[in-house]
Amino acid sequence: MQCEKLFSTRAKALKSSVIREILKVTANPQVISFAGGLPAPESFPVAQMKAAFDYVLNNDPQSALQYSTTDGYAPLREWVANRMSTNGATITPDQVIIVSGSQQALDLIAKVFIDPNDKVLVETPTYLGALQAFSMFDPAYVSVDSDEHGLIPEALTAEVTKDAKFLYALPNFQNPTGRMMSEERRQTLVEKAREHDLLVVEDDPYGALWYEAAPPASLLSRMPERVIHMGSFSKVLAPGLRLGYLIAPIEITKKFEQAKQATDLHTSTIAQRVVYEVVKDGFLDEHIPSIRERYKNQAHAMLDALTAYMPKGVTWNQPAGGMFLWVTLPEGMDSEKMLDKVFAHNVAYVPGTPFYANEAQTNTLRLAFVTVPPAKIQEGVKKLGEVFSAG
Ligand code: PMP
């Protein structure tokens, strides 16, 4: 059958993510992969999950296996609201929707806000999965510059923000760069958002994964009336659960609920029930410090290897948390064009280009460091250094 002619304009425009293509190469166990953004599987709390599944299936199997409400399991929504409430902002459970991974939150945001050619402000670079979700609805992206201290809020002028549907921001240990937005910049961003009546989407799956000190207060806690905050259980428990949450002003939450109903009726009942059992008595506060320690050691192994093996002219940032760092090659080198040589040395990374909504800085690349053992990090970075030295 000739299927191509049946596809919608939207489907015709779809491309496979470069990352998925690279993951095919990295399926080979010989390859040292700094490409995938997977959490370290050793950090998954298997025993706690087993016990929680047993508990839920022994005590309340019928409702745990039944359909449930679109907004999510009420005790879990209440738990999220309590955990996310601060002195600055009290979050109520009716502001919370449990979503099927925070990736679904990006899809709902796109569906609820974006008409073709609507202006959407994004960081430069930004999370590829957000660009994929938003692009299905054909926005006109306006890139907002960032540097090692995160998004530069001074770029949010009256002209840039005029008629923008929202700004998509990743203040903590951003994917792809690992950058954290400074306290000063957060304050300025809040001033600019208020001045220009701008809605801000704050995507924060990595905020708990700091190494030495917690990041500055969230944008949600500073201006809950104009922030949609996204959180996830993927990096602090396990991504296979597909569980995340959205927090928004109530009139927006209601719209998300309607959009979610059409998308998947509701998030997995059993996943919500089990995660609630795991987190309700404070398990995350015992568990997350061990992930922080693990990721901090991995980051140090990567930074040491970069210092030892990168040729002159290559630069990188020192992440204060999360799973990634960002490398800049000398001007004129193209990290995507170098991939074949890199693969030939059995190493992999993700080139910077797909993380840019508009014009890309082609001499950049993302290194993920949490799933490769330190000895292999050394070996892999040494090989990268050789490829980059050869030019
Ligand atoms: N936002 C960012 C910035 C991410 O890095 C990811 C995962 N790669 C997601 C959202 C989606 O996470 P999940 O759907 O697993 O919650």
- CATH superfamily label of the largest domain: Type I PLP-dependent aspartate aminotransferase-like (Major domain)
| Broad CATH class of the largest domain | Alpha Beta
Judged by helices, strands and strand pairing, the structural class is: alpha/beta
Strand count, sense and barrel status of the largest sheet are: 8 strands, mixed
Shape descriptor reads globular
**How far is the N terminus from the C terminus?**
47 Å
Determine Rg (CA atoms, Å): 21 Å
Please bin the fraction of helical residues: 40-55%
Total domain modules: 2
- Can you tell me the residue ranges where pLDDT is under 50 for at least 5 consecutive residues? none
Going by CATH, the architecture of the largest domain would be: 3-Layer(aba) Sandwich
Distinct compounds present: 4'-deoxy-4'-aminopyridoxal-5'-phosphate
Beta strand count? 14
Number of helices: 15
What does the average pLDDT come to?
Answer: 96
**Which fold name is given in CATH as the topology of the largest domain?**
Aspartate Aminotransferase, domain 2
